[in-house]
Amino acid sequence: VVAVHLFGQRAPTARLRELCDRHGIPLIEDCAHRVDLLDDRPPLGDMACYSFNAVKEAPAGEGGLVWSSVAGGDERVRILSNLGLTIDTVQRTQVLNHRDYGFSHEIGLKLRGNDLSAALALLSLDHLHALREQRARIFSHYDQAVAAMNTCVQPIERNTGDSFLMYVVRVPAESRDAIREGMAHCGVATSVHYPSLTRHPRLRGPCCPVAERLDRELLTLPSFLALTPSEQDRVLSALAEACQASGAER
Ligand SMILES: Cc1ncc(COP(=O)(O)O)c(C=O)c1O
């Protein structure tokens, strides 16, 4: 089971942990949208995956980190992320004639991090709380304006301890694309997080009616950290205008 802390909102990991234990299923936490490393509790999953991609909570360009509480889990991740080799570059150069020199024991990928992105990630983690507060201010500005609009709904329950990554609203499905176009016309780019998995050609459904309906209603507003209050107002007016022009009604 993969528990995704989507948009910064904590997944119900305690309940999932119980369920997985009862059925002997491993639990993996996807912390790309919420870095729990600095919080008061370690992950409850057998593994937790973090992303340092440029648009995530702790950006460092690219790269990531895997935390594991499973015996031998870290070793296995190291091997799989290093072409299936059992020794790393330092060991290869330090241990002359190592019997395992450069042999792949299984199919792995080359997903090693590097010192430069690690240094950037550490910097991001040092500033995580400040970055979260900055984004929380943008979200609270948006929340107030969206609450007063009758065509848009902010669907995510705000719980203490949540962090904020993507600002998503729900609009009527039949008007969503027109609203996006209207906003683009005002110079405001939007996105959709996320299209239902069942619409990906390799996983074609349909078999998840709720996800498929939501996928037609969702709209993500810009919420990057450099967005000034007047730019946030511009986003909100573009949203209000585009909703009105589309004739959308809830
Ligand atoms: C929820 C979630 N998990 C995982 C990832 C993958 O992260 P990365 O691009 O660092 O592999 C992403 C984003 O790309 C994501 O949004």
Which descriptors would you attach to this protein?
two-stranded antiparallel sheet, alpha/beta, 4-stranded mixed beta sheet, elongated, binds pyridoxal-5'-phosphate, 10% strand, 8 helices, 250 residues
Any overview of this molecule?
There is one protein chain. The chain has 250 residues and is of the alpha/beta class. It contains 8 helices and 6 strands. The strands form 2 sheets. A 4-stranded mixed beta sheet has the order 1-2-3-4. The mean pLDDT is 89. Pyridoxal-5'-phosphate binds at residues 4, 30, 32-33, 51, 53, 64.
- N-end to C-end Cα span: 35 Å
Helix content range? 25-40%
Instruction: Give the bound compounds.
Output: pyridoxal-5'-phosphate
Q: Detail the poorly predicted runs.
A: none
The largest sheet is:
4 strands, mixed
Overall form: elongated
Overall pLDDT score: 89
Radius of gyration: 22 Å
SSE string: EHEEEHHHHEHHEH
Give the helix/strand class: alpha/beta
Strand content: 5-15%
Give the tally of β-strands: 6
User: Total helix count?
Assistant: 8
The largest sheet has its strands arranged as 1-2-3-4
